[in-house]
Amino acid sequence: MWWLRSTIMLVYVLAAAYAPPVAAQVRSIVRYNAIGCQDWNVYKTIIQYPIFTDREVFNRAFTSGLFNGECTLFAIGETVDTVVSSFTSIKLRRLGSTAAYWTALETVMPPK
């Protein structure tokens, strides 16, 4: 039975290695003071604080995320690459960086 698992694992590895590359979608940041976090759950939690009108907790949570490297602040005009996109949020990577951050879909200009 171990050979079956090994064969399946080998197929997955080879499929991933020979998969055609996905075309990158380079976009620009268009939202002032757009925040992003590497972990979706952290991002979702932080953006819910202003909804409940608790700015102090939002400031503390976001500042903590900035200091530990979990979150970032995007600047208008910054060039980013799309990693993953959903209906309400998008995961972006700065060009030249390996770190990717979840942020609101409205943060970036739609692709042309």
Give the tally of β-strands: 6
Largest sheet geometry:
4 strands, antiparallel
Percent of residues in helical segments? Answer: 25-40%
What overall form do the CA principal axes indicate? globular
- Runs with pLDDT <50, length 5+? 10-22
Strand arrangement within the widest β-sheet reads 1-4-5-6
How far is it from the N-terminal to the C-terminal residue, by CA?
Answer: 50 Å
List the quaternary state of the chains. Answer: single chain
- Briefly note the structural class of the backbone: alpha+beta
Strand content: 25-35%
* H/E series: HEEHHEEEE
What's the pLDDT, averaged over the residues? 79
Radius of gyration from the alpha-carbon trace, in angstroms? 18 Å
What does this molecule look like?
By secondary structure, this protein is of the alpha+beta class. It contains three helices and six strands; from the N terminus they run H-E-E-H-H-E-E-E-E. The chain has helices at 2-17, 40-48, 55-67; strands spanning 26-28, 34-37, 71-74, 79-85, 89-94, 100-104. The strands form two sheets. Strands 1-4-5-6 form a four-stranded antiparallel sheet, with no helix packed on it. A hairpin with a 3-residue loop joins strand 4 (79-85) and strand 5 (89-94). The N and C termini lie far apart (50 Å). The relative contact order is 0.21. The model is unreliable at 10-22 (pLDDT under 50).
Q: Summarize this, please?
A:
With 112 residues, the protein is an alpha+beta fold.
